[in-house]
Write a structure and sequence with these properties.
59 residues, 2 helices, three-stranded antiparallel sheet, 36% helix, alpha+beta
Amino acid sequence: MGKSTFIVKIDNNQKDTWQGEVTWAEENKKRRFRSCLEMLKLMHEAWENSEDYEVKKTN
């Protein structure tokens, strides 16, 4: 399975969760998030749209 690299920048911590920005390094795409769950969903979505996921899915 291939790997994806994410850079997470935490700007704030409110209501017991993080807010900030996640960067998908391989594609140089940045997205803002308002919670840890939203950050994980963005990372999962990026991985699903990667070529590595398509290769894994077809094997």
